[in-house]
Amino acid sequence: MLHSSKAPLTGAVLTLALTLTLLTHAPPAYAQTLVNPVSEAAYVRHMNKFYVAGGGLIREIKPTGNFFTIPDRVPGDGQFATLDLSNPWPASAPLWTKLSTAPKAMDYPVAMNANGTKLIAFQGGQNVTDTFAQVYDCLTDTWKPSSIRVPKPSRLGLRAVLDPRSNTVYMAGGYEDNDNLDQMYVYHWDTDQLTKDAMPVAVTRKIYYKAVWWSTKSSILFFGGYTLPGPEFVRPEINVFNPDAKSWSVLQTTGSGPGERADMCMAISDDGTKLVIFGGRHYAKFEQAIVGEIYVLDLNTMIWTRGQDYATPRIYTTCTIVDDTFLSWGAIGCNSYCKFYAN
Q1: Domain-located, residue 255
Q2: How many domains does the chain have?
Q3: Bridge-partner residues for 223, per DSSP?
Q4: Per residue in 186-215, pLDDT tens?
Q5: Which residues form the domain of 125?
Q6: Which positions, given as ranges, span the membrane (predicted)?
Q7: What is the DSSP string of 309-338?
Q8: 61-70, 159-168, 226-235: which has the minimum mean pLDDT?
Q9: Which of 116, 96, 114, 117 is nearest to 41 (CA)?
């Protein structure tokens, strides 16, 4: 079942619908709406609803002359669904509800508004005049375009995080028409407008990072990703952004935490006491590895703990934490091809 009051967070990795087989062979008593597993789905949670949007198929290829593999993406049909987190269910039969079609794209930022009645997907076309964002109304199950525009709507690798106190959404890096990634874009739900603030040089040029709202400190936590140009991995530290002071700092932690990586998943507990980082990829000299590692940071003691590795390493997954259970869905898994060599 989904909810567990006994399984410790450091050992509870519940991965749902990692293959189509798990869904199609669910017991008849639990037969549910079919939601196809994908990679790089956009995702966001509000209370007992976990939304996943878009995504598609990815295969790792190694172009001639490249040391490492790169993703070859094929966007899906804009699948959009919500997972019911309010009641227990078997891992083989999650309680999905299909919703109106979302943007047919992969890995775009999404965020809810503070009261959970609307969702915004920041995914534009190639041109400045293209619609950049779509707003979903949870009550009517309909989408409509936002009025906002940005210089580079095709930018990938950013994350959107809601500050529920001010009903504003933060996207570090921004959508400027360059690779400086030095602007903090702020979306204002109340007015459907974007503003921006300059970011310190030390935290710029990052893409494919992860970010979550830290409720106990009213701040945003950032981890991982690549820097541009390069790409090169970001230092394995957690950056903290305080929206009130518009200030940045580095979280001082102890213990053996995750090293440099990207394409991982990160989630935080509702009470702001546990941060989990799962999966991802890292490079070491001439070797690239996809991992099933899971790390838990106690945000009270600031001590990292490594949990039991998941049997199937993965990248591009979605995740959240419900009570004391870590939940992950979708992704690329690997078995015999978890390591790629530069040869």
Answers
A1: yes
A2: 1
A3: 210
A4: 999 999 999 999 999 989 999 999 999 999
A5: 9-341
A6: none
A7: PPSS-EES-EEEEETTEEEEE--EE-STTS
A8: 61-70
A9: 96
